[in-house]
Specification:
Number of strands: 2
Mean pLDDT: 83
Strand order of the largest sheet: 1-2
Order of helices and strands: HHHEE
Structural class: mainly alpha
Number of helices: 3
Strand content: 5-15%
Shape: elongated
Low-confidence stretches: none
Largest sheet: 2 strands, antiparallel
Length: about 90
């Protein structure tokens, strides 16, 4: 990937992190006013499982696991719809 592509990918990851944090904060704020806990399963699962952009290794930001590749890694820009699909998690050891 070129440097501008990498910069846009990092920006995209940070934007997703900001959206998740904003939605979680809004749900938390609304739950305190109505005195009952309001969180969706998907937001809680995302925060528990997915690493933030700052926590990810560069290898995971720009490549994804592909068992058919010789090195088991493929550039994320070769994935169809790579700007819309989350590729934050990879198998352990790869």
């Amino acid at each position: 990937m070129s440097s501008p592509q990498k910069a846009r990918q990092r920006k995209r990851l940070r934007m997703v992190d900001n959206v998740v944090a904003t939605v979680a904060a809004a749900l938390e704020r609304s739950s305190t006013s109505s005195s009952k806990a309001t969180t969706t399963k998907s937001i809680a699962r995302w925060q528990a499982e997915m690493p933030l952009e700052s926590e990810m290794r560069p290898k995971d930001k720009y490549t994804f696991f592909d068992r058919k590749e010789k090195t088991y890694r493929k550039g994320v820009h070769k994935l169809p719809k790579w700007t819309r699909v989350s590729q934050r998690l990879n198998p352990p050891g790869f």
